[in-house]
Specification:
Blueprint (H helix, E strand, L loop, with lengths): L1 H5 L1 H16 L4 H23 L4 H32 L3 H24 L4 H18 L1 H17 L4 H12 L8 H12 L13 E3 L9 E2 L7 H9 L1 H29 L8 H32 L16 H15 L6
Parallel strand pairs: 1-2
Length: 339
Amino acid sequence: MPVCALSAQTLARLMLWLGAWGFQPMGLVRAAIRLGLGLLLVGAMWVLHRVGIHQHITGEFLKLGFCLALSAWCVWRFAAVSELWHAHRRTQALTQALPSLLVFVIAAAISTVTQDKGPLLVICMMMVVLYSSMVGWTTGIGLIVFGFLLIFLIGVDLDVVGSRLQAWKDPFTADHDDMAKLKWFQASAAETLWGFGPGRTPWCGTISLDQCRGLPLQLQSDYTFTALVGWVGIALALGLLLLFSLFGFHLLAQGARMSQQHMKPLAMLDPRHRALAMRSHLLFFSGVMLLLQAWITAAGNTGLLPLTGLTWPLLSYGKASLWLSTWLIFSWGIGEHDA
């Protein structure tokens, strides 16, 4: 946390430069350079995937970069686009919103070339939240439906989606037995009020599957909610989900309150206020991302949604996820003087 706090000022300057260079109006030449840099970034992520960098790592950097870019766009363009939209100057509003759509397209392309579609669902929903807050929630309802459909329309492997939908519909006759294992595990844990208890939760670890009498190593990653059900029971697992949701909402609300203070025309003339505005937006999107991932993970584990492979931020196993999620939150939740 102190390391994250010390990095806040450097990160703020980087984001301000990114916003000024990437989202300010400019000519066709610099617009072409922007597009070229985006393609270069997609190519670099493809190379990382080809040389064996695991998609869990590239996916975490994708979500982090997307939050940074979206926060920078909000500081430089969101207020103007929102005012144009509500003034019924829709064409101008959509024109100025194009850079944010370019950010989304680049993120979708990276998700496709790295064959990691889980983050794409989170990114789609974050775009829905952004544009719904810009155009109003009446129009936003349509955007929510559209956002859910995007995951199936943009470069999704239909075989993977089909198998997960099959397992979601009827887990005990599907080709893949992941959902069936989760159902069995949670039903077994529910036989006692508080689950299996610490030290008694059956899982396989690195044992071969033919000797497995529990769940595999993936239990502490994609199936974290199921692991909690086995450890402490369904009631406490849901209670922990509620507490985590309140934590995420606290970050979201704090970012929104900070934005109201610093996103004012006169305040934005001061570079310090621009840095604070960037901080507030990044905190807001960090809260949105944490909430979305936690809810999607829990919904997949309980069968309310198909399994997506998303992990639970700050709780699921994964060093890259833990480091980047901590940095994303605490570099903006703590001032440099607190380090």
